[in-house]
């Protein structure tokens, strides 16, 4: 994101059917020529969270995962809901900043279209035994650039886990297909959102960002 441009919440919205649950997302301009339909999963209520957990479970359970991994911040509610729906207990959260309780951590650099600058993901080395030799599904709220999910997948593999699937509520545009490469085939999403460009003062879906 450029430092000089402040994101602007527009008056337009984008409707999307998330596996049978309709939501209307605000369009937010993140650059003068680019808007995204922003899904803040933590603002959509517990019914939506539970619905997504259940629908992702239907897609991920056949992969017979042992454990779920999610990246801070908005991957956390998704990891909890998917873990609960799968009937599992433990899950592993990858943090973005060092926490007092973290031991030594494995680290991976990432970038994000909704946050400034470079970030990193940290895996507490005490969580490694939960992943080593295990069948792991990695989850997140939205995959857009793919950077955060790629970082998560790489960290799980560093820890010796086998990534058997990737679950997201929304896929957005197409950049993630290139970032994830062969791992893009592991992605199970509940719905797709395009990105928008400004045409005659209206934001319109860019055809190249449809799936
Ligand atoms: N549309 C979106 N909503 C929420 N988080 C996002 N991260 C990237 N794209 C996003």
Automatic annotation (TrEMBL):
**Alphabetized GO MF terms:** glycosyltransferase activity
Specify the Phosphoribosyltransferase domain's residue ranges.
Answer: 57-178
- Keyword Transferase among record annotations: yes
CDD domains on file: PRTases_typeI
> What is the protein's name according to its record?
Adenine phosphoribosyltransferase
Which taxonomic lineage is given here? Answer: Bacteria, Pseudomonadati, Pseudomonadota, Alphaproteobacteria, Hyphomicrobiales
| UniProt keyword Transferase, yes or no | yes
- List the Pfam families: Pribosyltran
Per UniProt, which keywords does this protein have? Answer: Glycosyltransferase, Transferase
């Amino acid at each position: 994101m450029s430092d000089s441009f402040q994101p602007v919440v527009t008056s337009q919205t984008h409707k999307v059917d998330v596996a049978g649950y309709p939501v209307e997302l605000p369009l937010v301009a993140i650059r003068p020529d680019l808007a995204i339909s922003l899904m803040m999963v933590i603002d959509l209520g517990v019914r939506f969270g539970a619905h997504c957990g259940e629908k992702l479970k239907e897609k991920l359970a056949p992969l017979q995962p042992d454990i779920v991994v999610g990246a801070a911040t908005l991957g956390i509610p998704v990891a909890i809901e998917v873990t609960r729906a799968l009937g599992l207990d433990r899950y592993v959260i990858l943090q973005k900043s060092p926490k007092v309780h973290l031991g030594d951590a494995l680290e991976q650099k990432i970038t994000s279209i909704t946050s400034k600058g470079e970030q990193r993901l940290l895996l507490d080395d005490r969580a490694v035994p939960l992943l080593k030799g295990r069948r792991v599904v990695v989850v997140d709220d939205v995959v857009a650039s793919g950077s955060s999910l790629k970082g998560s997948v790489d960290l799980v593999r560093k820890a010796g886990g086998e990534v058997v699937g990737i679950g997201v509520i929304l896929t957005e545009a197409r950049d993630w297909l290139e970032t994830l490469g062969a791992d893009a085939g592991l992605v199970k999403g509940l719905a797709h959102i395009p990105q928008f460009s400004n045409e005659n003062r209206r934001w319109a879906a860019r055809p190249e960002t449809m799936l």
